[in-house]
Amino acid sequence: MPSVAELSQSLVNGVGIGLIYGLIAIGFSVIYNASGIVNFAQGVFVMLGGMFAHTLLTSYGIPIWLSAIISTVLVAAVGVLVQIFVINPMWRRNAPLFAIILATLAVQLLIEQVIILTLGDRPRTYPEFTAGGPLKIGTVAIPYQFFWVLGVGALLVFALTQFFNRTRMGRALRACAQNREAAALLGIPVERMLIVAFALSAGLGAVAGILITPTQYTAYLIGTPFGINGFIAAIIGGFGSPVAGLVGGVLLGVIQSEAIVFFGAGFRNIISLTVLLVVLMYFPKGLFGGLEKKA
Amino acid sequence: MSADTTHLIAVKDLAASYGHIEALRPTSLHVAPGEFVTILGPNGAGKTTLLRAITRLIPSKGQITFNGKDVSGLKTHDLAELGIIMVMEGRGLFGEMSVRENLQLGAYKLSGSPADMNRRLDKVFTLFPRLKERIDQMSSSMSGGEQQMLAVGRALMAEPKLLILDEPSLGLAPRVATEILSTLGALNKEGLGILLVEQKAPLALKLAQRVYILSSGSVRAELPTHEIKSHHDLARYYFS
Ligand SMILES: Nc1ncnc2c1ncn2[C@@H]1O[C@H](COP(=O)(O)OP(=O)(O)OP(=O)(O)O)[C@@H](O)[C@H]1O
Ligand SMILES: [Mg+2]
């Protein structure tokens, strides 16, 4: 049996990585809800966030906080370009949804190749945002970066919730998600809303990538694993509210990291995929899908 | 065409098809300012197709002028911006939003202060007091009649110049249907142009000044309602 200390440590690790999955999951949900598109290029935004931040920091000497902001804006712009040049032309021609989804997969591979050619295939990382640490509680070590992930994650989910419920644009996005034709009939420009959705979810992916790079690393190929885990988290959360996405991510992160303690590192993906199958088979609307409808 | 400037909306040779099925043959119709026009026709006549073609929810050929301006190239949301607002078949509510949020979204394209929003809300609540009682209820949990009131109320929040409705009485108890249609009549008395699609509803005929009979994708007749004396007359057009 693993000790209490081991279990607590892996709990901390699991929550940390789970919050990252949660942010990626919210990105999946924002686009899916506004359009029915599962954007498989979501993981690539995570990769770009870390890569851009690293480049700005090391090649241009820009302080990390500013690098983080610029990187997020740049990645959001990439999201907008993907929407305008790939998604929208297909959307207008009424392309079948699966064709659009395949196109997002192609976009992921394409961007990865561009990154190899321009920034190289070398993994890279940068220091934690706050030097020092980790914070020791008994034998459990909590890296300072954990608090950044927690703080930024909570702040973003709060801000997004306000955005979707209180602002005109946020409400319009939800309207597009629920009935696109009715939204258009009220004067809501649906295609423009989809651009907003892509910018928002690319930005969210970038933040996830920027936050996780110091505790792990970033490289052109991290998009796929992060994309898959974010996708599983989105399914657990039922592609619902930002809070549901974040909770889905944390659940997945904790299950993964406890599984490593119990069964060893090799079981991490087996457990995630088993969780995915169980959720798909028994809770097809996500763990909170049923609850939210009644609220 | 000089006639078009006297029309609120004029549709000329509008046609639409699904694949190679021509659901709407080239059709022309118009609504004068302040006019109440009803389109009648049996199931599958192409009524919904016609309205979806006018609002460009489906691709369609033909010319549309609104207030004398050619708007043929505009998209659904641009037409809404101009004041062409449709209550679609099946109501098109945002089911997971409250009554309040649905109504607020009705006024999406209108800028204005919270005071303007409240003024518009009050106007809708005067017409449909039941919506005020249910302001925070999720729209999908309301009764059919309440949902239809919300759909009409939401459209009114947009301050339409032309209100288009696709079978608002469908599936409602006669009393509720009458309540909603009478409200439309009252709005028309205030000068609102209305284009209403119905299948039966004698009241829709009483309220309207003019009626088009649609059958198998084309207009079979256009006549002032006072010329329709009995249902027998209508049946003749349906099946001719
Ligand atoms: N999406 C579609 N794809 C193919 N055919 C369609 C589609 N929508 C409608 N049709 C066909 O077009 C014709 C006209 O349909 P439409 O819905 O416009 O009729 P309607 O007059 O509104 O009927 P109802 O009174 O039942 O609502 C019908 O024959 C219908 O089967
Ligand atoms: Mg119909």
What would you say this structure looks like, in words?
The complex is a heterodimer of chains A (295) and B (240). By secondary structure, chain A is an all-alpha fold. Chain A has one domain: ABC transporter involved in vitamin B12 uptake, BtuC (Orthogonal Bundle), CATH 1.10.3470. Chain A has helices at residues 4-35, 42-60, 64-92, 97-119, 144-166, 168-178, 180-185, 190-212, 223-236, 242-263, 268-282, 289-294; strands at 135-137, 140-142. In chain A, a hairpin with a 2-residue loop joins strand 1 (135-137) and strand 2. In chain A, helix 6 crosses helix 8. With 240 residues, chain B is an alpha/beta fold. Chain B starts with a helix and ends with a helix. In chain B, strands 6-7-8-3-9-10 form a six-stranded mixed beta sheet, with helices on both faces. Chain B is globular. Chain B contains ten helices and ten strands. Chain A binds chain B through residues 168, 171-172, 174-175, 178-179, 181-190, 293, and chain B through 55, 57, 75-77, 80-81, 85-86, 88, 92-97, 101, 104-106, 108-109, 154, 158. The complex binds adenosine-5'-triphosphate and magnesium ion. Magnesium ion is lined by residues 47-48, 89, 166-167 of chain B. Magnesium ion (MG) binds at residues 47-48, 89, 166-167 of chain B.
